[in-house]
From TrEMBL:
Domain of life: Bacteria
Originating organism: Sinomonas halotolerans
Protein name: Beta-propeller fold lactonase family protein
Family per similarity comment: Belongs to the cycloisomerase 2 family.
TM region(s), chain numbering: none
Pfam family, one: Lactonase
InterPro entries: Cycloisomerase_2, Lactonase_7-beta_prop, N2O_reductase_N, WD40/YVTN_repeat-like_dom_sf
Stretches of the chain forming a coiled coil according to its record: none
């Protein structure tokens, strides 16, 4: 029986659009499907958990699947889309966001969407139709908050503060349940205070944090230095303990980069500008992208969770967003500077072989895969 094609959604703020593509799960061939225009500042995407459609094959559920798009042009908002089995999307409604967003992820318990604001240094849990009708909640995370991740057991919420070089965690079951909100610790501005935090290396700029499937290791890519930090995670307390730091940019001749914003000048191509980090579903390999050089670094993940450098692959210009297909056979990398996406077949040794490339709308920054890692 032929496997249904995998559905990709790509946020392209340069065009104010979201593209949909299909990925053949056997060959890795990409096929552009449709474009949803009128999404100014589309910066981050998330498929709703438990959506009906599992792929982009003809004949899929006509009800489609729900896709959330964080859009920052004008007023910050989440646009709720329905994507049908052929990749065509239609806008259902807008949900206001309390701040601009660079990262969204559904709360697996179904209470809403976590939205990280880089510009305003905050993390919000926002009720979204179809997920929750509960109250909004703000978390004290720090300057240039860049991502949110919930542990696989659902007990802790983690966030990175790129500008403060800090990782924080919050007790999810206590801090997020409506009946416990008043009793949870609060920062001076009324936001929920973290249950704990750990300092990253000064000037490193922690960007994305990913947890392995077992939930006992956390991996953090640092935008300013290109380091990957590996942490052991205590399931009971949520605490993170540093195991190692490895460089993903060694030999590239780059200097540490600045904290970037719309107000700071472009530092040019000679500095580190690390971006995405992805773990294969079997947690054997880790990949991270570097935008200044347009490369992907590959690492093997040992039995203890530590990393061993494997190789570096030239890829799209300014590779901001990446994703893995559900099977872990293919890595998808989008080039903000090239307006293309490339599918790489992952070898048994973790090597990357390009198998397909497709054009996108201008400036792709985020790749979301239905059911992907």
């Amino acid at each position: 029986m032929t496997e249904p094609r995998t559905l990709l959604a790509i946020a392209c703020p340069g065009a104010g659009a979201v593209d949909t593509l299909a990925l053949d799960p056997t060959t890795g061939q990409l096929e552009p499907l449709a474009t949803v225009d009128g999404l100014g500042g589309a910066s981050a995407l998330a498929f709703a958990p438990g959506g009906e459609a599992r792929g982009a094959s003809p004949g899929a559920s006509p009800a489609g699947t729900t896709l959330y798009a964080a859009c920052n042009e004008g007023r910050p908002r989440v646009v709720v889309l329905t994507v049908d089995g052929r990749g065509a999307g239609r806008v259902r409604e807008d949900v206001p966001l309390p701040a601009s967003s660079c990262f969204i992820v559904p709360d697996p318990a179904g209470r809403g969407l976590f939205s990280a604001s880089y510009g305003e240094g905050r993390l919000d849990l926002v009720p979204v139709p179809g997920l929750s009708a509960g109250p909004a909640r703000t978390f004290a995370t720090g300057r240039n908050t860049h991502c949110a991740a919930v542990s696989p057991d659902g007990r802790f919420l983690y966030a990175t503060a790129l500008g403060d070089d800090r990782l924080s965690w919050f007790p999810a079951r206590e801090a997020l349940v409506e009946s416990a909100l008043e009793a949870s610790p609060q920062a001076d501005d009324g936001a929920a205070a973290p249950g704990g935090s750990v300092a990253a290396a000064p000037g490193s700029g922690p960007r994305y944090l990913r947890l392995n499937a077992a939930g006992d290791r956390a991996y953090v890519v640092h935008e300013r230095t290109g380091e990957i930090a590996v942490y052991a995670r205590d399931a009971g307390s949520g605490e993170l303990e540093l195991l190692e730091r490895v460089s993903a940019v060694e030999g590239l001749g780059l200097e540490p980069g600045p904290v970037r914003s719309a107000e700071t000048p472009d530092p040019g191509p000679g500095v580190v500008w690390a971006a995405d980090l992805r773990l294969t579903p079997d947690c054997r390999f880790l990949y991270t992208t570097e935008r200044s050089t347009g490369t992907v670094a590959a690492f093997a993940v040992g039995a203890d969770g530590r990393l061993g450098y494997l190789s570096r692959t030239e890829t799209e210009a300014q590779p901001c967003g990446a994703a893995l297909d559900p099977s872990g056979r293919f890595l998808l990398v989008a080039g903000e500077g090239s307006s293309h996406v490339t599918a790489y077949r992952i070898g048994q040794d973790g090597s990357l072989a390009p198998v397909s490339r497709a054009a996108t709308s201008a400036g792709p920054v985020w790749v979301e895969v239905r059911g992907g890692a």
